[in-house]
């Protein structure tokens, strides 16, 4: 295309655009589309509305909660300090979280004081529960009972309050009250912890049948809980019901192959039937979980004794003695192994030590 042709084309385009503009001006019926923009929400005076500001007492609560749930305790404590400085120590949530951090760090007395401050700012059942919990951890069980009962008057439908009251009464050896509160907690809401605590209470009272009945209900409520099945199996074992014990222990190991109480109990049953290799296989799993268990090393030592590997047996039993020097059963087993090896002086030493620790043995 030459320069002349391009100039002619430009002229034509300009003429066409001027004609179209004139036509639109002459035709008022054709309206031009204009996009309208709605104004921002304004008040009656025409000012833009701002989002509401949080009260000063609660301005950093979300940030405190965020760092606390992430377990970033140092950052959380720094933010709490700023919040308490701004509010002159009147922010309940900041005090509450700081008390929880102190309890986690083992500073129970300081956490108690902070929870008491929270309960002064807001006398709620939750704050009183935390005050009572700190008192319980300090060993002040009677004071904890008083605070828990005050909280229970505010909220009588809280299963945790009833459960904790039962635990406190069990600590002060008031088993009747403890049993009543545990049963009340189970009526409000059945929970594994309460079933376990009630079973332990029956064991302390010497009522093994009631403990078995309680744990049987617990297993029916939580059939996939290996700890409950293991506890029930051990109770069956103590009561001489070996078949049921082995079934429950097998159930526990089905749901958790590394359930240590079930492994130890099942291993002891297998060991009693002189199947030492299978028992050692079970104990090998338990050693990875609890390498410092004196009962475990005692059982391993007696398995080697049953296989007539006396040196290995003495080695395991001496490790068990190191972990539990005042266990007369382990010392008695060591004496028996030395007696079998005709090491009479060592046998006399260990057997006399066992008799001194337990004169009825």
TrEMBL record:
**Gene3D superfamilies per the UniProt record, alphabetical:** Tetratricopeptide repeat domain
Compositional bias (Basic and acidic residues): 1-15
Which biological process annotations from GO are given for this protein? Answer: cilium assembly; protein localization to cilium
Task: Please name the Pfam families in this protein's record.
Answer: TPR_1, TPR_16, TPR_19
In this chain the TPR repeats are located at: 159-192
Highest taxon, organism lineage = Eukaryota
Keyword list (alphabetical) reads:
Repeat, TPR repeat
UniProt-annotated stretches for the region Disordered: 1-52
Here the segments flagged for biased composition (Polar residues) are 16-30
The cross-references to InterPro entries, in alphabetical order and at most eight, read: TPR-like_helical_dom_sf, TPR_rpt
Q: List the GO cellular component terms.
A: ciliary basal body
Q: Report the sequence similarity comment from the record.
A: Belongs to the BBS4 family.
Matching entries from PANTHER family are given as: BARDET-BIEDL SYNDROME 4 PROTEIN (PTHR44186:SF1), PTHR44186
- Protein name per UniProt: Bardet-Biedl syndrome 4 protein
Protein species of origin? Stegodyphus mimosarum
Species classification: Eukaryota, Metazoa, Ecdysozoa, Arthropoda, Chelicerata
